[in-house]
Amino acid sequence: MSSNPLLSVEGLTVQFFTDRGTVTAVNEISFEIQEEEIVGLVGESGAGKSVASMSLLRLINGPGRIVEGEIRYKDRTLFALEEGPDGEPRKREDMLSDEEMRTEIRGNEIAVIFQDPMESLNPVYTVGNQLQEFIKLNRDISKKEARSEAIRMLREVGISDAAERYEKYPHEFSGGMRQRVLIAMALACKPNLIIADEPTTALDVTIEGQILDLVQDLQEKYGTSFLWVTHDMGVVADICEQVNVMYLGNIVEQAPVDDIFYNTKHLYTDALLDSMPRPDRTVERLKAIKGVMPSAIDPPEGCPFHTRCPDARQVCEQTHPDLRDVSDDANIIHRSACLKHDIFNVNYEGSLPMTDETKRQANTSAGTTSVNETGADR
Questions:
Q1: Residue 325 pLDDT level (bands cut at 50, 70, 90)
Q2: How would DSSP label each residue in 36-52?
Q3: Mean pLDDT score of the chain, rounded to an integer?
Q4: DSSP assignment letter at 61
Q5: Contact between residue 303 and residue 338 where contact means Cβ atoms under 8 Å apart
Q6: Is residue 108 included in any domain, yes or no?
């Protein structure tokens, strides 16, 4: 990993403690975001993407808790634990307090664009009032100055007649316009990093394209970094520079975007790419990923993807792969957690292939309850 990233995450683990058992929604993940970079966090629903992204701002509430790992932003420690005198984990002394997170980091340094703008915007206040209040609280300027800045930001994100629209309520905006308001709100305090949690999921393809173009233009203008959380590989191809692929709480592949698409190193990423429509080939029917994601309460032994993997072998049921550099190019870091690579030295080729029946039994044994069904976020 780089020596001076904007944000670094090391060994992050998040668990939810429920009546049905402990859900490990995020399992020892590590990644970085550089200055002026758009990094993708991609995977199916239930992979742990939203839990991972909200953990960066310590927005995980009970029954969830960050139980392990370190999160650093620039030279500041957002989260870190150490072993106390009693042998139990405790907050490290250099970790920011809740007050420091609230007043110095959230909104000012790291902002969030949420998935559904109708849930993020208060329906009884005008759009302008909400944007103005947010700016006033975070930038310590007068109400008049905040109003002028709010109108400027609405204009900046492509909303015409911004002064007039300032007085309108959220229900008077289209879905795409509401999403532009959230982008304006995120950019208003000039953060260095924005977490975009599937902000285009509810939009039609045309509006989604407009929002992605807008984000790229604004990112270039302001130099803001993004963590882009999505399940859509098409969005990843369009906007991201680095990509982290998540499955069942684990990052299973990590590489520059071109390598992810043209030199895929994990069979789950292969399956994601095969399941999406592509303009460069014609098929009668898209290839769906077989089965469903196993339970995060009782995940399968070995590789978490082996119960659905078309090339799973018996060794995949027995060995849990960590993330290792499997790049063919010394100038590129491409990590994968797939036992087919020689670097794991587990005799993958010599191991017997798993049958569909043994995969089904393994999946049934592990259970198929998604993270969402246990009360955790995606």
A1: very high
A2: T-EEEEE--TTSSHHHH
A3: 88
A4: -
A5: yes
A6: no
| Alpha carbons 150 and 166: distance in angstroms, whole number | 8
Domain assignment present for 115: no
Residue 183 vs residue 369, higher pLDDT: 183
* Residue 205 pLDDT greater than 70, yes or no: yes
Q: Is 88 exposed, middle or buried (0-12, 13-18, 19+ CB in 10 A)?
A: exposed
Count of domains in the chain?
1
Q: 6 vs 43, 53, 79, 296, 335, CA distance in Å? A: 23, 15, 15, 30, 20
**Closest Cα partner for 315 from 291, 290, 339?**
339
- Amino acid letter for position 55: S
Residue length of the chain: 378
Does residue 279 fall inside a structural domain?
A: yes
Torsion angle in degrees (nearest 10) through CA of 341, 346, 349, 354: -110
pLDDT in tens, 183-197: 898 888 889 999 999
CA-derived radius of gyration, the chain: 22
CA 268 to chain centre: 17
C-alpha to C-alpha distance for 103 and 72, rounded to whole angstroms: 17
> Domain of 323?
266-374
Q: Which amino acid, 344?
A: F
111 phi, psi to nearest 5 deg: -115, 165
Q: Which residue, 332, 334, 315, is CA-closest to 264? A: 334
Query: In whole angstroms, what is the distance from residue 346 CA to residue 327 CA?
Result: 18
Confirm whether 341 is domain-assigned: yes
- Give yes or no for a contact between 305 and 252, defined as CB atoms under 8 angstroms apart: yes
pLDDT tens profile 125-136: 999 999 999 898
Strands 250-256 and 64-73: unpaired
Which pairing describes strands 76-83 and 64-73: parallel, antiparallel, or unpaired? antiparallel
